[in-house]
Amino acid sequence: MSRRTRFSQAAVAVSVIALAAVGCGKSSTDTSSDSKKSSSGYTGKGIGLAYDIGGKGDQSFNDAAFAGFQKAETEFKIGGRDIEPQDGESDADKVQRLEQLAKSGYNPVIGVGFVYAPAVKEVAAKYPKTTFGIIDDEQDKAANIADLVFHEEQSSYLAGVAAAKATKKNHIGFIGGVDIPLIHKFEAGFDQGAKSVNPSIKIESQYLTQTPQEGGFASPDKGKDAAAGQIEKGADVVYHAAGLSGQGVISEAASKKVWAIGVDSDQYAQSSLAKYKDWILGSALKNVGGAVYDLAKSVVDGKPLSGVVRGDLKSGGVGFADSNPKYKAMKDVVAAVDKAKQDIIDGKVTVKTTQ
Q: Among 159, 197, 342, 349, which one is least packed by beta carbons within 10 Å?
């Protein structure tokens, strides 16, 4: 049964925790002991989280998931275990990782990223009493699986509007981590948003790799090189949807004193990007942390979510961060982004998911 939910929007801090090698990957945290029992009858050991390529510390996608993981642990007073991926791992490694969490009693067990789809499908069938979540994929259909997906094209549309209003050269850029349909949604929304402001705007576009295994989401050097190329061609606002690789995009934009637009998390607020933050115009948000938290809450409450749970602008599942005071000072840019957001929510604008 498919349910829709409002993704939680409370801000949660991401702490730095030492990594220790465990099993088929690295366990970042293990705060569980015995199974916990809540007033609702929850008896699991806590929340299990398996990270996507790039792992924790990407200041973007995976860190957003970790924030939701921490918030759930704290508020529900449950344990938790999160595990890092390995370089060059196979689907069998992902199966083993999820199975390890489920067998140990963690519930829910969440795979962060579409690469976990085959593993979630296989392991969920073996553990029907455990709730599984997968972020950014909706092909797995089972009573104990929640597909946690988003309208990334909507937040990217807002990024496009911001870029087109902020550029002084009518020349902007998009850098995608991997050339796949999920990232095409980011590009499609960005292009449509930018062209809603200026139909003749010039938009550079580049994908870092063809497959995740080639490092498109985990190589800041690739992001840096791509940004350098687009800036050299004349782009003065560059938007990335490239995970950890985006750190290279942001650092290069800052070094050339042009705007960068971040993704997934509010990258202006990330500590590891602090020296570049003056050049982070904003970020296209995807409330991955809220999705993780809400799935954990549903399980603890005894009413586990299942089916497709999709976040959009109306629910707060996606958005555009306005933390940078320099952005807030651009009244015309802010007004254009706010209007675009309301037009999407009101149904006046439908954002494309493909070019």
A: 342
Q: Determine the Cα–Cα distance for residues 303 and 315; give it in Å rounded to an integer.
A: 20
* Chain centroid, CA 125 distance in Å: 26
The conformation of residue 337, written as its DSSP 8-state character, comes to H
pLDDT tens for 223-243 read: 999 999 999 999 999 999 999
Q: In what order do the strands lie in the sheet with 109-111?
A: 20-21, 26-30, 79-84, 46-50, 109-111, 132-135, 145-150, 307-311
Residue holding tokens 């989280």?
A: 49
What is the SS3 assignment for 98? helix
Please indicate, yes or no, whether the overall pTM of this predicted structure exceeds 0.90.
no
Cβ atoms of 219 and 248 within 8 Å: the answer is yes
Residues in the chain: 355
3-class secondary structure, 344: helix
User: What is the number of other CB atoms lying within 10 angstroms of the CB of residue 74?
Assistant: 12
C-alpha to C-alpha distance for 344 and 335, rounded to whole angstroms = 14
- Alpha-carbon distance 283 to 150, whole Å? 15
